[in-house]
Design brief:
alpha/beta; 2 domains; four-stranded parallel beta sheet; 40% helix
């Protein structure tokens, strides 16, 4: 039996659940559990609040979560190593995804014993054969007046979403790994590319640092989306998915905003890397346009 672990923010949870759906289709015994530590660093279990995907608090799931926590103990090796070795002996194992998110076809096959799958699973190769179900599962709608007004403007213009993620990306090791990827030069090149491809583009900017965007970029037709924060941030993803074109940060949030975009003539622009200076050949769909030369 395989157990897919759901954790981190909404974009990550969507990739993990899409992977679970594919696994479940191939092996009915597949389960998923939620890593409750995401209540601390993110907005908790967002799949239920946004998509009505319930995580069941059963006795079995509670036991599975306990086993998962034991397998991920890093401290106190004198205690944890023998315990983990004992669990492994009984076929209870943990598989952690590689840092470059490369697709591993063998993971779609069933495992013996109990195997916990811990990773992002962001490559569409994990669920592209099940894309119809994934798109149906992740249908989004908004009902409030402000977002409906933005949606109307998005639909009647040559709309381009620009997602600029800063915030937590600009601190400590996060900056070294993620924040240094989408530089000012990247967005300038991406905007230039859109101007070449699209006549009279209208840019819709989504960011957790709108002031930085306003201070650093000049766009002729531009709307700054500032009405969706905290637990309403998923509404930004909905608006992104309705834009005709997308300019992404190295973010799973805008990855899904673009993936849910069903415009047949869409162009999606992404940075060459997701993690700084680490080749991630399977992270972005092959038909998305990578910007490689920028400072």
């Amino acid at each position: 039996m395989d157990v897919v672990v759901i954790f981190n923010g909404l974009g990550n949870q969507m990739s993990q659940y899409a992977f679970y759906l594919q696994k479940k289709k191939l092996d009915k015994s597949t389960r998923f559990i939620f890593d409750k530590r995401s209540h601390i660093s993110h907005n908790g279990y967002e799949l239920e609040r946004v998509f009505n995907i319930e995580v069941k608090e059963t006795v079995v799931n509670s036991i599975l979560f306990l086993l998962f926590r034991i397998l991920t103990i890093k401290k106190h090796p004198y205690f944890s190593k023998p315990l983990i070795k004992l669990l492994n002996f009984f076929g209870i194992t943990l598989f952690e995804e590689s840092a470059n998110y490369d697709f591993d076809e063998s993971l779609l096959k069933s495992s013996k014993g109990i195997r916990f799958l811990y990773g992002g699973w962001h490559s569409e190769k994990y669920f592209e054969s099940n894309k119809k179900q994934v798109l149906e599962t992740f249908k989004l709608e908004v009902e409030d007046v402000e977002n409906l007004s933005h949606l109307e403007q998005i639909k009647k213009t040559e709309s381009v979403s620009i997602h600029v993620r800063r915030g937590d990306y600009m601190k400590g090791i996060n900056f070294e790994m993620y924040g240094s990827v989408c530089t000012k030069g990247y967005f300038e090149n991406a905007i230039d590319k859109i101007n070449q491809l699209v006549e009279k583009p209208h840019f819709f900017v989504f960011s957790n640092d709108l002031n930085w965007v306003k201070e650093n970029f000049v766009m002729d037709r531009c709307t700054f989306i500032d009405c969706n924060n905290g637990k309403d941030s998923w509404k930004d993803m909905y608006l992104m998915s309705n834009c005709k074109y997308n300019v992404n940060s190295n973010s799973t949030f805008s990855w899904w905003g673009s993936y849910l975009n069903t415009n047949n003539s869409k162009e999606v622009i992404v940075p060459n890397y997701f993690v700084n200076n680490l080749e991630t050949k399977d992270f972005y769909p092959s038909n998305w346009l990578k910007i490689k030369d920028y400072n």
